[in-house]
Amino acid sequence: MKEHTKLTKLEKYWILYDVGNSAFILLVSTILPIYFNSLAGGAGISEVDYLAYWGYAASISTILVAILGPTLGTLADTKNFKKPLFALCMILGAAACSILSLPSSWFAFLVVFVVAKVGYSASLVFYDSMLVDVTAPERLDRVSSHGYAWGYIGSCVPFLLSLSLVLMNESLGLTMQAAMTLAFVINAAWWFLMSLPLLKHYRQRHFIPLPKHPVKESFLRLYRTFLDIRGQKHIFLYLLAFFFFIDGVYTIIEMATAYGSALGLDTTGLLLALLLTQVVAFPFALLFSRLSKQYPTALLLKVCIGAYTLIALFAIQLDKQWEFWLLAFLVGMFQGAIQALSRSYFARIIPPEKSGEYFGIYDIFGKGASFMGTTLVGVMAQLTGRSNAGIAAIAVLFVIGFILFVRAAKETQNC
User: Fold this and answer.
1) What is the mean pLDDT of the chain?
2) What is the pTM of this model?
3) Which DSSP string corresponds to 96-155?
4) What distance in Å separates the CA atoms of residue 14 and residue 21, rounded to the nearest whole number?
5) Domain 9-203+211-414: which topology?
6) N or C, which end of the chain is more exposed by having fewer CB within 10 Å?
């Protein structure tokens, strides 16, 4: 039977959440580090320590999600639990995003940022697991890729509004504080409004019947799932590979602007270069979606991991503005593809009725694991006094991830 080519309404509503939450993560990758730099600079914090503290805050948020994610994900597999848990985390993240301009000290700002980041990351545990409910198995790669693609291009709308407010605040008669407040509110409102169609129309198709003690039972199921994964070598090896290569991806996303700022590169140039990443990521994510119909997903993932290894090696010597622009373009080529294909590949090899608990564990090895890369960059920067010292280790993460993924793909073929 020929695959239905048009996206269904439910698939589109699911994709809209990627459009909404991507606005926050673009904010985290661009304006937020620069705003934090101004707070830290006003308090006498050095450039090296500023980069380190930003990395530590990102690490704390991911560790918290790594702790909470599997339990919440397992609980979400219970009938009618996934949607309200998703809504709670989304609202927490958007609300914290809207008040990011209120703290006047760098430390208080980082606390609010951690809360917003935890809400964002935790919502993705449920959102990713919804993929098996909104589409058919043969459409997983296509829908997942469209999510990232439209997320990248859609996030440019609130970003451009925010950037205009920040860069033109004086001509608009706004103080910088007022401009930043409006920027944060715009991104929070965009995130919330883009979530509403999914909240209204999503129905949980794959679930575990409501037990007598759902919370207690969720812990027991989580324990059993860990035991199951240990016995399913292809899933276990894939999660280990994912831990390493996606750690490198998220570290580059979260630290790019902070890294460029610490190197003394022009602030406006950094923001526009990362906007380029979003624009480039849109067509390339769709391109890899098409390629997934002709080539195995495993092969495309190997290409993406190999490309990121070269990107990390190039970033080690980065010290010029044009090099940052080139880096932004190269990252855009593979960023959406590696995230989308990783998600759909995992969704394909797990039991759909346990998608919540499996994606909760997936989040440990993914976003929860990115604390290693961000912490590594921060520690190496402080130990050596050089901002680019930790970048070399990120390339090693990709190499390890590639080797493990090759083994995981072979095990999957044998299943």
Assistant:
1) 84
2) 0.74
3) HHHTTTS--SHHHHHHHHHHHHHHHHHHHHHHHHTHHHHS-GGGHHHHHHHHHHHHHHHT
4) 11
5) Growth Hormone; Chain: A; (1.20.1250)
6) N
